[in-house]
Structures are given as structure tokens and as C-alpha cells.
Amino acid sequence: MPAPKPPKAHLSDGEIKEKLRLAKDKLEQRRWNAIWISQTQRLAHHKIAAMLAVSVQAVKAWIGAYNRKGPDALSSNLSARGAKPFLSREAELKVLTELREKAVAGKLVTARLLGQKLQEELGCPVSSSYSYRVMKRHDWRKVVPRPVHPKADKEAQEDFKKNSAKSSWEPPPISPVEKGPPR
Length: 183
Description:
This protein is mostly helical. The chain contains 9 helices and no strands. Helix 3 packs across helix 4 and helix 5 packs across helix 6 (111-122).
């Protein structure tokens, strides 16, 4: 099997070494390392992959991107990862501010209601998980009242609290043996 062609000489060996030294993260460092090894030692892709503990496809992709787009193809742009949000943070805050006013007035605000408001704002349907992600992103949390049994007798509960023995509500005293040695 013939040795693969070296990457295009966009940068000299010294410039690649400098890029390798100034890499922002380990992934970017591996990319530059693959280019440097390929350019200086002319090793096969599978040997470079074994040296860097990555797949052969990754090495081929990095070298191909470097050949096509130049040095900018190997920089790590962490801010570009993930899906773009449907709404900007300000637009989400606007929708949540409207719902906050309802919540302060004592109305019940649900994820379904938030989803409906987001759909109105976007003009297209959104999933329920998007509503929950918006709430989490803006530090909203689920608050529900404590459950009440439909046949509960409030007067009987209050009477029980007033007339029950105090000892049933207090923890037992701690014996000196359980306390341990003084600190």
C-alpha cells in the first residue's frame, strides 16, 4: 500500500508546531498533531490514527478538511456546537415575563401554556421538551401545592395537632453513649 499524499503545504512545519502548541483544547491539539505527523513523517493514516488513539476516518477527515479549507478548518469552535435556539434569549424572556404576571396574580402556569405561547411567538409548533428546556434555561421550576385528600377533615386534623401527646412529635432524647466523646 503506497503512503498517502502529505497534506497541502498551507503552513510550514514550524507554523504547524506553533498551532499545535497554542491549541485551545485536546481535540484541536490532536487535529494539528495529525497534520504535523502526516507532513513531517509521511505515515499512513492508520498509523497516525493508532498514535493519536482516534479512528482512521477522523484522521482522513482532518487532513481532507485541512487540504480543502486550510488551517481554519482545524480550529475548535465550541460556540458553534449544538442546535440553534428557536428564539433569542430576549424573546424567551418576553414570553416568560407575560406568564410571570399571570403566576403572580395566582393563575396556574403550566408547560403546556408556555408551549402555546412559544408557538404563537414562533408561528410553528414546538415540542413539550422545548418548553421544559426554556423553563430550565431561565431557572423556572415546577411548584405544585401539597396534595390534599378529598375526604380530609381540616377540623379533625387541627384537633389532633392540639390534643395529641407532645412526645409523639418529638424525637427521642439522645443518650450519652450515642453522642460519642466530647469534641
